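Worked Example 4.2. Consider the chain below.
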Amino acid sequence: MPQKKPNSNKSKSVAVIVAHPDDETLWTGGRMLSYPTWQWFTLCLCRGSDADRAPKFYRVLKILQSAGIMGDLDDGPEQIPLADEVVQRAILDLLPPKHFDLIITHSPAGEYTRHRRHEEVSKAVIALWNAGKILADELWMFAYEDGNRQYLPRPMAHASIFRVLPASIWLKKYRIITDIYGFKKDSFEAETTPHAEAFWQFTNPQDASEWLKNTQKTA
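Applying the procedure from the previous section yields the following structure tokens:
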């Protein structure tokens, strides 16, 4: 897997593709807050008609200095599996048809055990990138795990990219989770809010597809 230090001084166009409002903050909010001159676009695929979560998402985007949009894929408690083509079509319908320097999204294994929508979004992004239907120089996937529910999600220190957040950046991120999204301090979201962020990095779509296959074999 290619590993290279990102050039943070150069402005980048970045698409963050997530399942839920708050995923952008939990898993990559520190990077978004750290690089306000990057051109951010955040696509959230669920909860577009949620009268509580949707307005909060757009308030958060202003803080993160990101453009963005929400879809409304089914996100009921049953978590009925969605067909690959349904998730892919939702992404294509909502994502601006442009070339991005970077796309950031979920891991095929999710960030914790387990959330089906996280997994589905990741697989859809990898498939679309590999098919040339979305264009980007790089793909980063969140690198977190929870030891099969033994502990709260943790960033993986051996991931391609691992960065401990400055205390001031983490605090801004934490306040978005608690003050804007409104999660209580003893909630899963607030207690999870990572002090470091980690990503699997790919510059070749075929490498990402092969990694996905290997991940599915060991799941």
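The CA atoms of residues 83 and 120 lie 9 Å apart. Strands lie at 13-18, 39-46, 66-73, 99-105, 135-142, 144-145, 154-155, 161-164, 196-202. Compare this with Example 4.1 before moving on.
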